[in-house]
Amino acid sequence: MASSTLICDTQPWKELEAHAEDVKKSHLRDLLSDDERSRSMVVEFDGILLDYSRQLATLETKEKLFKLAEVASVKEKINRMYNGEHINSTENRSVLHVALRAPRDAVIQSDGKNVVPDVWNVLDKIKDFTEQIRSGSWVGATGKELKDVIAVGIGGSFLGPLFVHTALQTDPEAIESARGRQLRFLANVDPIDVARNITGLNPETTLVVIVSKTFTTAETMLNARTLREWISSALGPSAVAKHMVAVSTNLTLVEKFGIDPNNAFAFWDWVGGRYSVCSAVGVLPLSLQYGFSVIEKFLKGASSIDQHMYSEQFEKNLPVLLGLLSVWNVSFLGYPARAILPYSQALEKFAPHIQQVSMESNGKGVSIDGVPLPFEAGEIDFGEPGTNGQHSFYQLIHQGRVIPCDFIGVVKSQQPVYLSGEVVSNHDELMSNFFAQPDALAYGKTSEQLQKENVPPHLVPHKIFSGNRPSLSLLLPSLNAYNIGQLLAIYEHRIAVEGFIWGINSFDQWGVELGKSLASQVRKQLNVSRTQGEPVQGFNSSTTSMLTRYLQASADVPADLPTRLPQI
């Protein structure tokens, strides 16, 4: 396919559009009765089992999707990504988050240079530094050990590390490694988030990690200055060098802030924010909490999937299959949303992270060549752990809109519970729902079945389940650091495959810029209105009215701001 050709103009796309009309006449009740089809839609790699037999797809659908991948040059695009070519063309950058978890002896080039040694230099530096902190050989300004960490960052500097942290908190090995330590994340510029983060902490025992590539991100740097004031007011300005470190490439601003540049941990412009959890962005705070050896296992799990994605044929390639099925659901069956439903409370922050990775990557309206798309790309992602979600939004999934679902289950619980006299263990109770829900969505319940159950006639229409609602199931052997890395990489690569097929740039995010630009105008207006009494001007009547009301109702905010920290 020529680079200027839209994927929707190709023959395989048109054939899939026609094929989708035929498949829509099928029902999963019938498709699932074909055992050969069902068996062919189960794939296993490195302990992870994928069953996509409950997708509204036939064996012919698979073949047609593989042809679409071929005409979209998916394999070539994967190779170009792994070879360090500048596939992020709008920013003229490589896309090499795979290098962040590559083995030490790997060779991955960017601009003619093997970047893996640089990656491991930073990892080694993180290992040395975190061991100093955790062993107590590095202490705070008053000689006390630093056992509490606040990581300050937003977006990709926050959601990914928070997901991994939350998933590890109940892992037995991680618990042992984290004993006596705390890790908190400060992201929102809302002062309430600052208050919640510092409540119960002592500046003497707290280390702050500021995560900002340029050291200019507005929200992050305001929060960083706030925590600097919190530390300085308690321990004196000289304490900053002992209590604050940075993940940044701007060493000049790091030093100007008061942090020793030797305590800055680098990452590179070929690491996108939402793909940065395996860089110092995530590895530093997570290693401070759990120790480098635990986080290295997380990196190895991700690397296993990286190698699988690169070398496995598409018929058995987990991320490729998942990406193709997403394109099938969105672009051909007309289902724009996806529910991510992990049956593990430890994965409660997984859906919010994938929400960003997916929607910031693929929420695009033009092709990579800047041509407006005549179709909609991207998925609307949301989710909640089971069984909580069942008592929240499953009503809509079962009897309202059709929303393809990802069910994620774990064979061995991190924290098994058994009660004498119970029919099953607590984890088996959870997993009973994991296995039941996909079948409920697929088969539904007919009026004939309801009548046989003597359901009153006036209730029959309300109790009918149409079924034919697609889902897929991922079963993980356990949920340790290695498995968490696997899961992360599967979804990262799945999202890239979707973008490769749609022909968009999944690695830029221009859509976040306009709001930030307009916010800077509002910030200037608030300043001159507060300090000089200037009326609101230069905005439309709606914004002018709302801003004026806000200023009038908050007139008690002093014009010359004194320093004031949260009072909790």
From TrEMBL:
<keyword id="KW-0963">Cytoplasm</keyword>
<dbReference type="GO" id="GO:0097367">
    <property type="term" value="F:carbohydrate derivative binding"/>
</dbReference>
<dbReference type="GO" id="GO:0048029">
    <property type="term" value="F:monosaccharide binding"/>
</dbReference>
<comment type="subunit">
    <text>Homodimer.</text>
</comment>
<dbReference type="InterPro" id="IPR035476">
    <property type="entry name" value="SIS_PGI_1"/>
</dbReference>
<comment type="similarity">
    <text>Belongs to the GPI family.</text>
</comment>
<dbReference type="GO" id="GO:0004347">
    <property type="term" value="F:glucose-6-phosphate isomerase activity"/>
</dbReference>
<dbReference type="InterPro" id="IPR023096">
    <property type="entry name" value="G6P_Isomerase_C"/>
</dbReference>
<protein>
    <recommendedName>
        <fullName>Glucose-6-phosphate isomerase</fullName>
        <ecNumber>5.3.1.9</ecNumber>
    </recommendedName>
</protein>
<dbReference type="GO" id="GO:0051156">
    <property type="term" value="P:glucose 6-phosphate metabolic process"/>
</dbReference>
<dbReference type="GO" id="GO:0005829">
    <property type="term" value="C:cytosol"/>
</dbReference>
<comment type="pathway">
    <text>Carbohydrate degradation; glycolysis; D-glyceraldehyde 3-phosphate and glycerone phosphate from D-glucose: step 2/4.</text>
</comment>
<dbReference type="Pfam" id="PF00342">
    <property type="entry name" value="PGI"/>
</dbReference>
<keyword id="KW-0324">Glycolysis</keyword>
<dbReference type="InterPro" id="IPR001672">
    <property type="entry name" value="G6P_Isomerase"/>
</dbReference>
<dbReference type="GO" id="GO:0006094">
    <property type="term" value="P:gluconeogenesis"/>
</dbReference>
<dbReference type="GO" id="GO:0006096">
    <property type="term" value="P:glycolytic process"/>
</dbReference>
<keyword id="KW-0312">Gluconeogenesis</keyword>
<dbReference type="InterPro" id="IPR046348">
    <property type="entry name" value="SIS_dom_sf"/>
</dbReference>
<dbReference type="InterPro" id="IPR035482">
    <property type="entry name" value="SIS_PGI_2"/>
</dbReference>
<keyword id="KW-0413">Isomerase</keyword>
<dbReference type="InterPro" id="IPR018189">
    <property type="entry name" value="Phosphoglucose_isomerase_CS"/>
</dbReference>
